[in-house]
Write a structure and sequence with these properties.
Elements: E1 5-9, H1 12-20, E2 28-34, E3 37-46, E4 57-62, E5 65-70, H2 80-90, E6 98-105, E7 108-117, H3 121-127, E8 131-137, E9 162-166, H4 169-184, H5 187-197, H6 200-213, E10 223-228, E11 234-238, H7 266-271, H8 275-291, H9 295-314, H10 323-350
Parallel strand pairs: 1-6
Antiparallel strand pairs: 1-2, 2-3, 3-4, 4-5, 5-7, 6-7, 8-9, 8-10, 10-11
Keywords: Kinase, Transferase
Protein name: CotH kinase family protein
Organism: Paenibacillus thermoaerophilus
C-alpha cells in the first residue's frame, strides 16, 4: 500500500533562510503539490534536539492551517506517535489525528513522515469543544509547581514553561492563579477548588494514558492545557508521544517499569492525595488494563499502521535504522504491553 506523496518546492534563497533561522520562529516560502494541486505554503523547522538531526521535522502553514510533519527519526517503528494518539482517543481523550506521507523535496525523496494535526482553534471546532484559552507546555517548567526544576528555586513567573496559543494576557494570569492556589491551599479547601477549576475525569484519563504508555516526558511538558468555555475548567490534551511503547524519546529501549503508576508533577501528586480521586484513578486504570491496554486490543492497531507504511519504509534511505529493526518493532511493542501490564497490575495491588 503506497503512501500519499507530497512535493515541496523551495528556492535556494528560501532554503538558506530556513537554515539560518533553524532555531527561530521565522518561516520561509515554498510550494506544496499533491497530485496536480499546488499550494503556496510557509515552512520552518520544528522540534527540540531533533533539529540537529540530518532528517528534519517541519511545520507548514497550508491555506492558513498549521500542519506538523515529523521525521520520527529516533523511532525505529515510525508509528509510536500515531499509535499513542489512536490509543488515547480510544480511551476517551481528544488527541491529534495523524497520517503518514512521503515527502519529495525539490525532487529528492525525503522518505516517510508523520503528519500530526495541530492543536489550535480548528482542533476544537471540528470536535465541537468550546475552548476559551489554550497553552502549550513547552518545557519542563510546566510542572504545576512553584519551583523551577532546573534551579530548585522559586520561579520568577508561574507561567514559566508555557506558551499562550489562544486567549489573552488575562488567561495567562488565570493559569498562574490556578498554579498558585494548587500549591497554597490544603485539605478540603483545595479539593473544592480543584473540583471547581479542573476537569478531574479528563485529567485522570490523561494521566492514565501517559502512565500506560510509559511516557516519561509527558508529565512536565509536551501537553496542552485549555480552559473549557462552558464549564470554566481546565482540561488536558496529549502531545509528543514518540518516547513510548518500550522506547524513550531518543529511541533507546527502556524499562517497562520506568514510569511509576502515580505519574509525576505537582498537580498529580496533590490530586492523588485525596482518597476519592485515588480510588477513581485506580478504577479507571483497572478498567483500561482489562479492556484497552491489552495485546489483543492494541496489536491490530499496530499491524494496521505497519501494513500502511511498510512498502515505503523499505524504500526509505533516510532512516538511521536498519529495515530489520523496523520489522522487529511490533514484537518490541507486544513485549512492552505484556511487561507493562504485569507491572501496573502489581502496582494496583500495592496502591492504598
Amino acid at each position: 500500500m503506497a503512501l500519499p506523496v507530497l512535493h515541496v518546492s523551495i528556492s535556494v534563497s528560501e532554503e538558506i533562510k530556513m537554515q539560518h533561522n533553524m532555531w527561530t520562529r521565522s518561516f520561509s516560502r515554498a510550494r506544496l503539490r499533491r497530485g496536480s494541486v499546488q499550494t503556496p505554503i510557509r515552512i520552518r523547522y520544528r522540534g527540540g534536539h531533533t533539529r540537529n538531526y540530518p532528517k528534519k521535522s517541519y511545520e507548514m502553514i497550508i491555506r492558513g492551517r498549521t500542519a506538523h510533519f515529523n521525521a520520527e527519526y529516533d523511532d525505529p517503528s515510525l508509528i509510536r506517535n500515531a499509535l499513542s494518539f489512536k490509543f488515547l482517543e480510544k480511551i476517551g481523550l481528544p488527541s491529534p489525528k495523524t497520517r503518514h506521507y512521503r515527502i519529495i523535496w525539490n525532487g529528492a525523496d525525503k522518505g516517510v513522515y508523520l503528519r500530526l494535526e495541530a492543536v489550535k482553534r480548528r482542533f476544537f471546532r471540528i470536535r465541537g469543544i468550546s475552548c476559551k484559552s489554550l497553552m502549550y507546555a513547552s518545557n519542563d517548567s510546566a510542572n504545576f509547581s512553584l519551583i523551577c526544576p532546573d534551579t530548585g528555586e522559586r520561579k520568577r513567573s508561574l507561567f514559566e514553561g508555557y506558551t499562550r496559543v489562544i486567549g489573552t494576557a488575562r488567561d495567562e494570569e488565570k493559569l498562574k492563579s490556578f498554579i498558585w492556589h494548587l500549591n497554597t491551599l490544603e485539605g478540603a479547601e483545595l479539593y473544592r477548588y480543584l473540583n471547581r477549576r479542573l476537569d478531574i475525569g479528563n485529567y485522570l484519563r490523561w494521566l492514565a494514558g501517559a502512565v500506560l504508555t510509559n511516557n516519561y516526558d509527558g508529565f512536565d511538558q509536551n501537553y496542552a492545557i485549555y480552559e473549557h468555555r462552558k464549564s470554566g475548567k481546565y482540561r488536558m490534551i496529549p502531545w509528543d508521544y514518540e518516547g513510548t511503547w518500550g522506547r524513550n524519546c531518543y529511541g533507546r529501549r527502556c524499562s517497562s517499569e520506568m514510569v511509576r503508576i502515580e505519574g509525576y508533577n505537582s498537580l498529580t501528586e496533590k490530586l492523588l492525595r485525596f482518597p476519592e480521586v485515588r480510588s477513581r484513578y485506580k478504577k479507571l486504570l483497572r478498567r483500561l488494563l482489562d479492556r484497552k491496554f491489552t495485546v489483543n486490543y492494541v496489536m491490530p492497531i499496530v499491524n494496521s499502521l505497519y501494513r500502511r507504511i511498510s512498502d515505503d519504509v523499505a524504500k526509505d534511505s533516510t532512516r538511521p535504522h536498519d529495515l530489520s529493526d523496523f520489522r522487529a518493532e511490533p514484537d518490541v511493542i507486544r513485549t512492552f504491553i505484556r511487561e507493562r501490564r504485569a507491572f501496573l497490575l502489581r502496582e494496583l495491588e500495592r496502591m492504598s
